[in-house]
Amino acid sequence: MHVREVKPLDLEPLGEIAYRTGFFGDSAHRFFPAQALFCDLWVRPYLEGAGCCGFIGEDETGKPLGYILGTCNLRQYQRWILQHLPRLLLRALRGEYPGLLGSLPYLVRMARYPTHLAPLETYPAQLHINLLPESRGQGLGSQLMEAYLSCLRSRNVMGVQLSTTRENTAAVGLYQKFGFHVYSEYQSPLWQPWLGRSTGHVVMVRGLS
């Protein structure tokens, strides 16, 4: 396996990996049937101006196995969503997001139970890491994390944060291995319709200065 920087042309394979792993390592279809919208919300912004330091892991044949995406300034991602919201709404009105109605319950709950954040003044960067099942346990997550943190340091980013749940035990272990610690933890009912219970959300941070 090798790691390289992501490119705009990687949108489709990155979106596929994101969707295949978006529900605690399994397919996001269970809670978000609109795959195209899922990609436009949680992958496209990082490739169109809101992201930095993105990397993709591939096998010897060039098959994508996982990625790490993030932004050096989370406010850039938030601005991207606001600026492109009219375009997303127009696509929705045109019927370009099959499965949209089935995805609305999650979008409503996400607005009702928003993710907590650590102070952006101290931890402005943010990341997401997703690996296909067949690539887990082989060191790819560590390769991606090393590349990402090294890139942030080269850009003099002060700190980085992420949000995950206690359901993602392997991911929490990886973050702790790389020096992340829990900034805050709280119970959230966000996933209750699909898991049948509330989940413990954790905000993890790492200083880089």
UniProtKB/TrEMBL annotation:
The keyword Cytoplasm does not apply. The keyword Transcription does not apply. Its EC number is 2.3.-.-. It is an enzyme of class 2 (transferase). PROSITE patterns: GNAT. Pfam families: Acetyltransf_1. GO terms for molecular function: acyltransferase activity, transferring groups other than amino-acyl groups. SUPFAM superfamilies: Acyl-CoA N-acyltransferases (Nat). Residues 1-209 form the N-acetyltransferase domain. Keywords: Acyltransferase, Transferase. This is Putative acetyltransferase OgpAT. It comes from Meiothermus granaticius NBRC 107808.
